[in-house]
Design a protein that fits this description.
The protein is mostly beta strands and 115 residues long. The chain contains no helices and 10 strands. Strand 4 and strand 5 form a beta hairpin.
Length: 115
């Protein structure tokens, strides 16, 4: 059973950058689509970005052009490079399959964008 551990969050000023990592305890090769999700206070969890096993990516309109998702199957790790961060990007960020499986939700990593 794969488990995900997210890391790399923190406090950053508007316009800054962060790189999130999601390490899987097992192989991610069997998961064809991986995604980053986020949940802001008082809001529903939303899909931010996805990447297929072949490397095709897609992004929510709100992050397009600012975020980049990538995966390294040799390291069983998914990354999310976040640039030009805005206050509205403040949330807890999670990785999971797409569609998400309830058993794969990790603790997430907190991203706070504030001056």
């Amino acid at each position: 059973q794969v488990q995900f551990v997210e890391s790399g969050g923190g406090l950053v000023q508007p316009g800054g950058s962060l790189r999130l990592s999601c390490a899987a305890s097992g192989s991610t090769k069997s998961i064809s689509i991986l995604g980053w999700y986020r949940q802001a206070p008082g809001k529903q969890r939303e899909l931010v970005a996805t990447i297929t096993s072949g490397g095709s990516t897609s992004y929510a309109d709100s992050v397009k052009g600012r975020f980049t998702i990538s995966r390294d199957n040799t390291k069983n790790t998914v990354y999310l490079q976040m640039n030009s961060l805005k206050s509205e990007d403040t949330a807890v960020y999670y990785c999971n399959s797409r569609p998400p499986l309830s058993t794969l939700w990790g603790q997430g990593t907190q991203v706070t964008v504030s001056s």
